[in-house]
């Protein structure tokens, strides 16, 4: 007797190694923390060039690098460095590599926050006299005063809420068998372990 895709036992010849191990919240959170550590130089430089030694062009270049980090790494390498270090990979249906569309779709919760932060920083660059600040504390005070005078407090609250989108999306991992975050469901992707099975 032979096995075909139409039979109930169509996968009985498949070894256990072929079945993927989906990665849950804890390891994915660990990978995200590693990525934050890896990006500290870029983040620190962006803060420096936006608040201490203001340079709009360098700031926007650094933000572009930080925006491209996740989708480009996941498309080209199969995961961010944090995921790869912890032996994970992002794949599409059937274990295939991500398309550019899937990589960008997975990044949407972060992209919304990044673009809103760029908008807020652009507004900060427009504050009269902001380039003459005496350091980060003075910069923060000037931005806060400007927001209070111009009704920007609501924008700050919205910015904080938007910053929670990646976490909310990732919490979906806790509610399904294939451990897909909301952005995985949207992009039809999975995070799987690359650790060898014994």
From TrEMBL:
It is a multi-pass membrane protein. GO terms for cellular component: plasma membrane. Keywords: Cell membrane, Membrane, Transmembrane, Transmembrane helix. The chain crosses the membrane at residues 152-174. InterPro entries: Pra-immunoreactive (IPR051791), RDD (IPR010432). The keyword Cell membrane applies. The keyword Cytoplasm does not apply. It is found in: Cell membrane. The lineage of its organism: Bacteria, Pseudomonadati, Bacteroidota, Saprospiria, Saprospirales. This is RDD family protein. PANTHER family: MEMBRANE PROTEIN, PROLINE-RICH ANTIGEN HOMOLOG-RELATED. It holds the Pfam family RDD. Residues 24-187 form the RDD domain. It comes from Neolewinella aurantiaca.
């Amino acid at each position: 007797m032979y096995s075909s895709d139409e039979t109930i036992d169509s996968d009985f010849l498949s070894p256990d190694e072929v079945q993927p191990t989906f990665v849950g919240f804890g390891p994915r959170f660990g990978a995200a923390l590693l990525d934050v550590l890896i990006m500290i130089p870029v983040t620190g430089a962006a803060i420096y060039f936006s608040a201490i030694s203001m340079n709009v062009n360098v700031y926007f270049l650094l933000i572009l690098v930080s925006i491209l980090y996740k989708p480009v790494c996941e498309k080209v390498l199969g995961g961010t460095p944090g995921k790869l270090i912890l032996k994970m990979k992002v794949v599409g249906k059937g274990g295939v590599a991500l398309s550019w569309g899937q990589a960008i779709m997975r990044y949407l919760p972060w992209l919304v926050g990044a673009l809103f932060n760029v908008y807020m920083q652009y507004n900060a660059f427009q504050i009269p006299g902001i380039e003459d600040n005496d350091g980060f504390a003075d910069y923060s005070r000037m931005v806060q005063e400007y927001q209070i005078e111009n009704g920007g407090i609501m924008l700050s609250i919205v910015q904080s809420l938007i910053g929670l989108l990646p976490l909310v999306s990732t919490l979906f991992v806790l509610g399904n068998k294939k451990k897909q975050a909301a952005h995985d469901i949207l992009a039809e992707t999975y995070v799987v372990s690359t650790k060898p099975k014994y």
